[in-house]
Amino acid sequence: MLDVHVHVHGIEETRLILNGVLSAATTEALRAHLDRHLAGNGIERLVIDLAQVRRIEATGVQLLLRATRAAALRGVALQLRSAPPPLRQAIAEHGIADLPH
Length: 101
Description:
- This protein has helices at residues 27-37, 58-73, 85-93, and strands at residues 2-9, 13-22, 45-56, 77-81.
- The chain is α/β, with parallel strands linked by helices.
- The protein has a single domain (2-93), classed as STAS domain (Transcription Regulator spoIIAA).
- The radius of gyration is 12 Å and the shape is globular.
- The model has no long low-confidence stretch (mean pLDDT 86).
- Pfam families: STAS_2.
- InterPro entries: MlaB-like_STAS, MlaB_ABC_Transporter, STAS_dom, STAS_dom_sf.
């Protein structure tokens, strides 16, 4: 299960706070939020807070990679934040580096 909580801070920043497991069974919920918030609504920064993610599978990492690319194409800064050490390692192994603590 994956819960996604959304906090909007004007056009400057939208924060998606994830809680649970990011797996093949749960990526669709996050994908819907990413699509909605990257669909040209003018936000400058999209932050995905991973502090409460207990596990991430390859499909979750792939979704984050696609979101990073989609954000860059739209001129939106996408930041992954607060990933616990095991999650940071899994994400870094798949090509997303430079995660803020």
